[in-house]
Amino acid sequence: MNSTTVKARALPVLLSAPVLTAAGTVAAAAAVLAGPRALAIPGGLALGLLLPGLALIALIFRYRTLSAVERTVLVPGLSLGTMIVSGLLLYVAGFKLDRVSWALGLAGITLAVLALKAVPERVWQGEEEDEQEGPKTELIPVFRDDAPKPPPGPFAPTSPEQKLERRTLVMQLLPMLLVLAVIGGASWLSYANSHDSYQVTVTTLYSDLPGPVGADNGWDVDIRATGLVEADGPYTVVVTDPTGNKIIERRIPGGDGAWGATIRLPSATRMTIGLYRAGDTAAYRTVIVAAAQ
Prior knowledge:
Elements: H1 3-14, H2 17-34, H3 37-49, H4 51-60, H5 68-92, H6 99-117, H7 121-125, H8 160-198, E1 204-207, E2 219-228, E3 236-240, E4 246-251, E5 257-265, E6 271-276, E7 285-289
Antiparallel strand pairs: 1-2, 2-5, 3-4, 3-6, 6-7
Helix pairs in contact: 2-3, 2-4, 2-6, 4-5, 4-6, 5-6, 5-8
């Protein structure tokens, strides 16, 4: 076998849809991660709306030829479902949802699906047993003309034509049902995750409008904190001047809920008020205040 024959046989494989989809996935991920904005935007759209759907179609419908309408519906639908599911998996795994995690997650799922598509069919179906020697015998039923005919009505056996029509209808509806199942499952996961996130306590630190500067050049500011979690306490409120010097430090009593106090600041300059949890070296919440003129 010469090199020309090898190239002629390898060319259809290199130009097949799964190989082109894999190459496009790698190129799109590289454009999103390291390319300029002119390439990052098209690469991100391809990863979010095109490539995962093409990979899933190549795997799920490898025994069927889809029409143009079915591909038009399936590709963006499966891609959006994949994007939602990958985002939820990244969030549950503790990864930060940014450009890098999104790109790597979508590209990884797409390449994994294409790798499953590349698995030989004999692996999916199992090793076939050696065929028995000699031709196979097929039993063909023979009906005599005087044989009783099947009873009419709803209990009559289904004809081959009816079976073919039902199978065609099921195969036509299967892509739409698959898209609805993926989107429905992703929507359910999103709702469940948002419902659980709704129960998370959010800690806030804010101040009311500061009062006027007094004769001693001091001024009052009302500080409020909400969503204090007892497990993160005791909390500490620290006031620093523009140079970073600590002016006031006050510990907040333990317990869940809210806290508030009026603090007298000694200088009519802009101050930074920080809320610290137990063991924190940096402020957990920060407010910058200035005296009323």
